[in-house]
Amino acid sequence: MALKYHVIPVTPFAQNCSVLWCDASRKAAIVDAGGDIDRIQAWVDSQGLAVEKLLLTHGHIDHAGGAAVLADRLGVEIEGPQRAESFWLDQLPTQGQMFGFPRSEPLTPQRWLEEGDAVTVGEETLNVIHCPGHTPGHVVFHSPAAKVLVAGDVLFQGSIGRTDFPMGNHQQLIDAIQQKLFILPDDTVVIPGHGPFTTIGAEKRGNPYVANPRYR
């Protein structure tokens, strides 16, 4: 029994939509269905997976823009982000206009998530970590058993999330990474919201924004 994962880059922003599934039950969750939902569903169907929920890390259009339509199509609920993210989810129509995305209606998930919550994927469990800074209600999902972190736009290979958007906070982001993510095991695989995978250890040692010399 194990948690498996596969990334499907979606939208013109090449956002890493993650499909997570329990190998024992074949039940799945889709994280950040920002768009291209036909392609997401086609891949899930090709693997014989049963999607039981959608998860959101935050409310930017490239991460959340397709979630409501896909959830409705699949007959499942949306969990996450943290409640402060209503600031961005309420503005999905405006975000779509601004960036030339298909229209998305304002979105309210069926379940807001808080620090310390857990979400299930089949027989697997993900821990919810609130990591504000890029956006106020941003959450990430950690599987201790699979040693994987779905990090959204908090931490990237050699970089961190932007904090120049409304409600962004650079120090909050740095604190969240150093105090909440860097305590995870070094061999934890990080699936960022864009770009290649990395590990917690690699970012602790070499990320110019948040690395600490004592880790080298």
Short description:
The chain is an alpha+beta fold.
Keywords for this structure?
single chain; about 220 residues; alpha+beta; six-stranded mixed sheet; five-stranded mixed sheet; 7 helices; 13 strands; globular
Strand-pairing-aware structural class: alpha+beta
- Rg, nearest Å: 16 Å
The fraction of residues assigned to DSSP E strands is 25-35%
If strands are numbered along the chain, what order do they take across the biggest sheet? 6-7-8-9-12-13
- Mean pLDDT across every amino acid position: 96
| Ends apart, CA distance between termini | 34 Å
> What is the tally of beta strands?
13
How many helix segments? 7
Pfam families: Lactamase_B
Organism: Chromobacterium piscinae
Protein name: MBL fold metallo-hydrolase
Cofactor: Zn(2+)
Descriptive report:
With 216 residues, this protein is of the alpha+beta class. 25% of the residues lie in helices and 28% in strands. The protein contains seven helices and 13 strands. The chain has helices at 37-46, 61-64, 67-74, 86-89, 92-99, 170-181, 200-206, and strands at residues 3-10, 15-22, 27-31, 50-55, 77-79, 118-121, 124-130, 139-143, 148-152, 155-156, 159-160, 189-192, 198-199. The strands form three sheets. Strands 6-7-8-9-12-13 form a six-stranded mixed beta sheet. A five-stranded mixed beta sheet has the order 1-2-3-4-5, with helices on one face. The longest helix is centred in the C-terminal third of the chain and has 12 residues, at 170-181. The protein is globular and about 50 Å long. The mean pLDDT is 96.
